[in-house]
Structures are given as structure tokens and as C-alpha cells.
Prior knowledge:
The complex is a heterodimer.
Chain A: H1 3-7, H2 10-15, E1 17-21, E2 27-28, E3 42-46, E4 50-59, E5 72-79, E6 84-89, E7 102-112, E8 119-127
Antiparallel strand pairs in A: 1-2, 1-3, 4-5, 4-7, 5-6, 7-8
Chain B: E1 4-11, H1 22-37, E2 44-48, H2 52-55, H3 61-67, E3 75-79, H4 85-98, E4 105-112, H5 118-125, H6 141-155, H7 159-173, H8 187-192, E5 195-198, E6 200-201, E7 210-219, E8 224-234, H9 249-262, E9 271-273, H10 279-288, H11 297-302, H12 319-322, H13 327-343, E10 356-363, E11 368-377
Parallel strand pairs in B: 2-3, 2-4, 9-10
Antiparallel strand pairs in B: 1-7, 1-8, 4-7, 5-6, 8-11, 10-11
Helix pairs in contact in B: 4-13, 7-10
Amino acid sequence: MSVPRYWRNEVPRYRLQGEECTQCGAKYFPARPVCTCGSTEFKPYKLAERGVVVTWTVISNAPIGFQKYVPYVVALIELEDGCKLLSQVVDIDPAEVVDGLKVEAVFRKIKEDGKDGIIQYGYKFRPIIE
Amino acid sequence: MRKVKIAGTGLIKVKEYWDRSIQDLFAEASLKAIKDASIGDLDKVYVSNMGAALMQDQLNLATILTESLGKPGLSATRIEAGSASGGVAFHEAVQAVASGYSDAVLVTGVEKMSDILPDVVTTGLAMAEDQEYTAYTGVTKTGIAAMIHRLYMDLYASPKEICMMAVKSHEHAVGCKHAQYPFKMSIERAMASPMEADPIHMMECSGIGDGAAALVLVPSDDEGVEVAGTAVSTDYTSIAQRTDPLEMRAIKDAAEKAYKMAGIKASDISLAEVQDDYTINGILGIEGLGLAKTGEGTKMVNNGDVDKDGKTPINTFGGLKARGNPLGATGIYQLAEVALQLQGKAGDHQVEGAKIGVAQNMGGMASICSVNVLRRVGE
Lengths: 130, 379
């Protein structure tokens, strides 16, 4: 992971910030250059930080950099504002994850790029304790 | 546009070739296809490959591989579209002949996965997903399929019904000389295998293998196996961007376009090869091709409709699960197998009276999909 590549994703990843089309109001996370309505005009949009698990999996065979977290949960989450994203769900026994689980965003370490590389941070989600 | 036919096919067994290079595999399959086609000079080579940059540290791959044919001067292009590389390369090769620009095109898919360790394979497969917001979460290719598998299970079918897709593919591979795993696998064994990414069991996933498959395309003379329809379609890469994550729009769209070009309906299809790199993907392939209604793909798999003598035989040489899934080569294996069926050269795997065959090859979680329709013409 190069430093500029990491740095240019900091705001979206640290703040859960996407974009909203100023023409049709469609919301995108991550941002994209052209809206499906054809517009290229967007304004920053802060995503909701709470949502529910739509579907999920437990990763047993991880990519390089993630092995020490195995087994871990990755879920498709629908936020309260209707936006969807993929994220790890942490602070829960994988066996206790269910469809519809209410979750909230947290700021966490994602992975380390070896001993000398960047320590990557960003969003994960955890169960909401009512 | 000129009509295009398949003049030659060349396949090698999918396995782990520790003692052979990617050039060796490419050359063997290519020379077989060239010999089978009995043609003189080629004027174009397409190479389909997904991972040589990662697995062999090799770029400029089409040049490196074409050099192994001993014919300097040939035009050569490498196509990479994740796991759909084969079907997409074929789509391009067909256009080269159809346009009149090329008269004899070799399209060879090759992948040599055994040159890297399994954890690098896992990382490499996730490279077909967006790196910044999908692979970034630590999800794997299997993990994404697993999330779709769970949604499908919630709505339509039991884990066992979905798992039957793998059992059927293994049944069909028995006796197949180019298959990596030409043996039966029981549903009990598959369901008892460890979870790769819950709810997907290890024995519901295609394995790691090396392989190469080649086809020679020429203008049609109204005899043999013609390309009746060819299409590629794309979708949002991430399932999170899709309105309905269960809808595999790229498969349906590519099928519609290819059928329209061929002037056929799904009910006209004699046999099909679908992308069963995971059992759920095989089911979604069957549905996306219109061979079963949404949510009814597992019924077709479980009631025998996909068997060799069934309504629409599926994966007649074992599919990705049992023939093997050497990524960039897979789509060409599928098309070569369909061609063998339509030529009546499928041996023990022969589907009697096969006239129209379809191959569905996709990359990512159906973020790109090719559907190619072949038809037997003449005597």
C-alpha cells in the first residue's frame, strides 16, 4: 500500500463519508465520478453510522494481512439512511451473528502492511448494546 | 459481419504441473488446437489469463507466450477480466474474425496457479474485487459468494439442495480425461467438509489447478460448430452497490443479448456450461441463463434435469468444481467442451442430439459475465 493511495482514502474511511448527487440525490459510498442519472456534480455526504446486518459470512481462510484475525465476520450492512456497505463486524462471537443484527460504526485498525509498512485504520461495525 | 466457426479445440488435463512452465502449458494446448484445425497460418493470437502478473511476475504475457509457438510476427493480445477472462477473450476473438480483419485466430486460456502459495491465491482472487472498499474489509472471493449463498438460503433453498450442484458436477466428471477431479463426491462428504466461508463448505468451492485450453476460429463454411451469439455484460463490482444483491444482472443481460443475436430462447438450449466456482454461483448461472426461474435453480439440479440425459444437461465434463478452474483458462475449457458436444466428439459425456450449447463465464461476483452460444450447422 503506497502512502498516497492510503492517504486519499482517509476521509471516506475515517468519517464514513461518501457523496450525494446534486441533481437526483443518489448517495454513493465510495464516491464515483458519474451518477447513473448522468450528473457529475456531487456534494459530500456523511453516511449514517447505524444499520442492520443484511447477510454475513465468517472468513476462515483469510487474505494476506488478515490471517491473525481469523475467524472474523464480514457483513453486508444496510445503514439507517438506506446506504449499503461491506464491513467487518467485531466485538461479537461469530456464532452469535444473525440477520437483522443492529450494528454501529467504530474506528478500528484494519491491518498492518508488514513490519515496516503502513498501519491501516478505518471503519468496522459492532453490535449496538441497547 | 462474417459468421465464425470453431475449427479446432485443444485441451490439457487440469492438474498441478510442478515441472512445467506457463509457456509449456500454453504451447501444448495451442498446438493441439492448431493441429485439430488443420490450418496453415494464424494471423492473430488472444491469450486469456488472470494472474500471471502475480503468479509468474510476468507482464507482456501475450508476447511471451506467442513466442513459444515459434512464429515471430504474429499479432498478440492478452485479455484479463478476472475469472471471466476466457469468455471475454473468446468474445473479442469472434469479433476479430467476424469483422473480416482476421482469418485464423487462436484464442488460448492459460493459468498456472500452483506457482504460488494458497494464501497468495486467496489474496489474488480478491484482486478481482475493488481493492479500496471491498478487499479492504478482509473479505475473500469465497466470502462474497457466501453472503449471497446465505441470502439465497434464506429465501429459496436448503444448504443441502444448493450443495447438490457440486455433487452433480463431480458425477459428470467421471471418466473425463482432462478433469482435475474425475470422481464422484457424496453429498454427505461435501456437507461434512469444513467451512471455507460460512455457509460455504470447502467441497462446494472449485480448487487450485493449472490448465490451458485453446480454440481456433475461422470464417464459417456452414459446416461444423458456429458461434451463434456472443455477449459480455458488466454490473456494479460490489454487491453493496446493487439494489438487489441477489440479482445477477450481468448474467441475465449477457444471456439476453447472446440469445437475441443467436435468435434462440432458453428452451432451445441442448446443454450449458455454467460458472460453478461455488455451488451458489452454479445455481445463479442456471437461473441467469433462463434455464430455471429465479429461486428454482436448485430444483433443476436436484430433480435430474441437469443430468446427461436430463432436460438441459449442465457442466457435462464436470464444470469448474470437478473439471477444474484454472481461472483465465476456464472460459475456454467451457467453450471447447461445448464444441466437442456439438461435434459429437464428447465420448462418454455425449449429450445425444446436441445442437445448441451455451457457456456462461463470469468474474467477480458476476460483476462481469460472458455468455457465448454455439450451434451445430450442416451435416
